[in-house]
Amino acid sequence: MSTLKINIDGAIARVTLSRPEVRNAFNEAVIGDLTAAFLDLGARKELRAIVLAAEGKAFCAGADLNWMRAMAQFSWDENHEDARRLADMLWAIYHCPVPVVARVQGDVYAGGVGLVACADVVVSTANAGYCLSEAKLGLLPATIGPYVVKAMGERQARRYFTTAERFDAATAQALGLVHEVVADEAALDAKVDELTAALCVNGPHAVRACKKLVLDLAEHPLTSAMRDDTARRIADIRASHEGQAGVQSFLNKTPAPWL
């Protein structure tokens, strides 16, 4: 895959975002590759854990600028279809039968926070920075919203969705978005190895059944209707005057019209 590196070592697969030159930002190729990778790996009975990682100084900086430029010209229908592909990618990661461990370093913005929220276990370096930045662009974190709200809770999501504040790894841990915070990348690798080893010594069918049990018992299951609703919401706001003006201001490095 052009945007990912995939390595399988015994019972552990590693999926690494491999676009460090653009801080591992999303575009249609990344979305397609991640969807295909997790659907394929989730079907492999021999796997016991999947590590989701990224190359470079950032884990994922959200949307790729060129992708955003293209979206700014999309019709509502094109925005909806584009958002559905992103929603399907998040669904594939969240519902992957194999436990997913996120190895997080550097900046985690917008859709990158969605990736983190979809993982089953998250380990972050202490210097990682998180931000649900969509409102700064006149948009909203719709497709990632159900997963982030499940991870950090409704009350905290109200704050960070609307203020678009940057927060550190310690705060992310306190919010429930991150499980473990470690000092540096050496410690990050050690903790990820420890967690994947723990997964591998448990009953393989039991581990998968445990993950499915939690998903089934969740108070508000992520339904197909909800998935479509979130895609429609982002299509609505992307096609709106405010959304288009905000994106253009960001791309052109000019003040947003509401400032």
Give an overview in words.
The protein has 259 residues and is α/β, with parallel strands linked by helices. The chain is built from eleven helices and nine strands. The chain has helices at 28-42, 65-71, 76-94, 111-118, 145-152, 154-163, 169-175, 185-200, 204-217, 224-238, 241-252; strands spanning 4-9, 12-17, 49-54, 100-104, 107-109, 121-125, 129-131, 166-168, 180-182. Strands 1-2-3-4-6-9 form a six-stranded mixed sheet, with helices on both faces. It has a three-stranded mixed sheet with strand order 5-7-8. Helix 1 (28-42) links the parallel strand 2 (12-17) and strand 3 (49-54). Helix 3 (76-94) runs parallel beside helix 4 and helix 5 crosses helix 6 (154-163). The longest helix is centred in the first third of the chain and has 19 residues, at 76-94. It is globular, with a radius of gyration of 18 Å. The N and C termini lie far apart (41 Å). The model has no long low-confidence stretch (mean pLDDT 94).
